Amino acid sequence: MAGARGQLAGRHGQYPQAAPGQFVHGRTDPSVVLRRADGALEDRLRGTLGVDDETAVLAADAGLRVHIVTGDNGTTAAAVAAEVGIGAPRLAVVPDAERMTDHRLDELLGDDLEIVFARAAPETKLKIADALRAHGKIVAMTGDGANDAPALHQAHIGVAMGRSGTDVAREASAMVLTDDDFATIVTAIESGRRVYDNVRKFILYIFAHAVPEVVPFLIFALSGGLVPLPLTVLQILAIDLGTETVPALALGREPAEPGIMSRPPRRSSEGVITRDMLIRAWGYLGVVSAVLVLIPFFYVLWKAGWSPGDDTGGGSPLHDAYLAATTATFAGLVTCQVGTAMAARTDHASLRRVGLLTNPLLLGGIAFELAFAAALIYLPPLQGLFGTAALPADVLAIVAAFPVIVWGTDELRRRARRRARGRIGER
């Protein structure tokens, strides 16, 4: 249910019992509709949502619209809905949903408001689910009775009640609530958004390193060999299979970003990989990293007296300097990965709001990649295998600044985007 709106339907004992037709609808996160055929709607809604309206507020902030489909009196249902925060600031009430025409239903669903469908039959839920789908909404519906099964099956996400639901309802549903609690649905949406965001963070982190790995080869090729290869094949393999892996996996355990439930749902047509993600990965993080990793490479060579076209092969006077230069490129790329990992932790908020220490697995992954890189640079057996050499203090000082630079440039970009969105919101 991450990043999607929907509808839910339910008829059950505590709250979902009170709502055999709970729906949530939207574009990519579910909205909810409650329905109840017996007379305990008020007690059941208040029993689950009436403690406070935090759940309804969270759903509204997340861009979900909650509808109630009930067999009870519309006045009672509307009063309870208003008490728990459903329908603020506008709530529409259909007193006799069974007699509602298709044209009237389309008019209601076209407005940006939440609706109570009173005196509704089980067939009404199916009719509403069909209409919402026709309007391009993602529909999640809760239900617990056998007569809810058609609507549960028709919704994008059918949600059955685990405690009070029938086997027929559970079989027709895509998800079962084991606690029969509507708040669990909102929690699931938040969890789904977090998982979806973390998948994107993983991809962003991997994609961002393609540019600094490719650019050194382009420089070598475009210079016609006048500039020696800044990075060897084995060093790239050490990055892709060694230093990069653990931090990338740790990003999958990133906690939810602040404000995750205040964002509107994403479009259902939007893929995981978007244009903005590619621009950020290749146009910002990748380009900054590519420029940075070449600085220590040329610094080491020029410090040794190298000029374009000079021989740096084995046995040449510049060979040792060349080994140190490629090692500097390798170390620079690893430290850029640290900055990219920190930048990838958030797509909207600042790192200060997220918290530097809130993902200990990522901190452990960064420690591992730095230790792994140090072993390749300073242990003699690995030096011979990967073509590395010990780096002097001045080169280490240069590459040590790269994480802050990579993260800082992306932080400034996100800050500018937040300010731009804020100005647009004020208009």
Straight-line distance between termini = 32 Å
Strand content range: 5-15%
> SSE order, as H and E?
HEEHHEHEHEHEHEHEHHHHHHHHHHH
Principal-axis shape: elongated
- The number of strands is 8
Low-confidence stretches: 1-40, 47-52
Please, could you describe this protein's structure?
With 427 residues, this protein is of the alpha/beta class. The protein is built from 19 helices and 8 strands. It has helices at residues 15-18, 41-48, 54-61, 74-83, 102-110, 122-134, 149-154, 167-172, 182-208, 210-222, 233-243, 245-251, 275-303, 319-344, 351-354, 360-378, 380-386, 393-400, 402-426; strands spanning 22-26, 33-34, 65-69, 91-94, 114-117, 138-143, 157-161, 175-177. Strands 1, 2, 3, 4, 5, 6, 7 and 8 form an 8-stranded mixed β-sheet that branches. β7, α8 (167-172) and β8 (175-177) form a beta-alpha-beta unit. The longest helix has 29 residues, at 275-303. The chain is elongated, with a radius of gyration of 29 Å. The chain starts with 14 loop residues before the first helix and ends with a helix. 46% of the residues are buried. Residues 1-40 and 47-52 have low confidence and may be disordered.
Could you give a short description of this structure?
The protein is of the alpha/beta class and 427 residues long. The chain has helices at 15-18, 41-48, 54-61, 74-83, 102-110, 122-134, 149-154, 167-172, 182-208, 210-222, 233-243, 245-251, 275-303, 319-344, 351-354, 360-378, 380-386, 393-400, 402-426, and strands spanning 22-26, 33-34, 65-69, 91-94, 114-117, 138-143, 157-161, 175-177.
